[in-house]
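Q: Here's a chain of 408 amino acids. Please give me its 3D structure as tokens.
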Amino acid sequence: MSVVAAPLARTPFIGTATEEELTRWRAVASEVAQTLAQDALERDRKNEQPYAEAQLLRSSGLLDLLVPEEFGGAGGHFETAFEAVRILATADGSIAQLLAYHYFNQTGIAFYAPAEEQGQWWERTVANGWLWGDSVNPVDPTLVLTPDTDGYRLNGAKRFSTGSGVGEVIIVNALVQGGENDGKVLAFVLPTNREGLELVDEWDYLGQRLSASNSVRYSNVRVDATEVLGEVTEEPVSTLLIPGLQLAFANFYLGIAQGALERGKQILLGRKNAWFLSAAPTYSRDVIFQRTLGELKARTAAVAALVEKLGRAYDLLIAKAGEVTAEERAELAVAIAEAKIVSTETGVEVANRIFEVTGTSSASNDVGLDLYWRNVRTHSLHDPVDYKKIEVGQYFLHGEAQPISLYT
């Protein structure tokens, strides 16, 4: 009598995070954040590729948090990963971004690859300690794959390739021109030392300076057939990758806001006097400043409640694997768009208005309070938040979801 093996699930993620899992990784992320906080401003000013920071993430175990246990990883959940990103962002928004993108580049294994091929990819990422960068920026649709014997050749360029500067591998999306896959967009994985692949260290922006978001140029780069994860399609579970990344954004905007609040609190408590027109003995006892901080703290707490709920909801839907429907996908994507709206506006507001309670001296370059504002202001321009508001309003009024894209 033969035994028929049960078919593999479309994605390997099951269940939701236990309190034990969350507690364990909160502690790990907090320890990493404490290390990053010691010289965050100094590192930001140097504007160098974050090799040491990448190694810190690797040695902490955070890189493999989402890898299934059967393939050597921690077997964690997205809720836990989102919280780790948020904790890191309280200290260093750049490295929080690096980790967030790594999670969704790495889990491209589950979103794109056939179930029977995923195991060897998970095992390789653990065995080699890979940090995953990307090269998928949709506003630069210049990459072209052309068939070449049993693989392809890749030509073109991509800007804003987060993690490419320090990642061992990058996930790439490119259009096939010619051959049996003509017109398809394929997702594939390349080592960053591949011949013809040029990393351009050109990041010269206001913030997020250590996110390793270089440009990448490709000159007749060889892509083996074995390096292709799969086709980029509109399969509902596959397209959950983008809402997941948007929820990661919401978490590190929130983390930056929380970090700015805590730093502002320290500065305010350290001020020994008060404004000359105030009857309070110190600035921290002045109700004007208490009111401002109370308002900002309440808004931040509201965003936290929303993103925490959505982190659990994301795991629950991912666990349905190939049974996820387009309607379920759309409903969660819109809910995440709501979180993206309020986290963006709260993050920018908190990082800006914290100066109102800390005073002129806090604008000194050696204080570094500006780092929070520069980071959240820079990354929150990733995609216009007004389009997220339209997405939410259209769905609320008509039940119509936005077309699926690398932003929705």
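Q: Can you summarize the key feature?
A: The first helix runs from residue 19 to 37.
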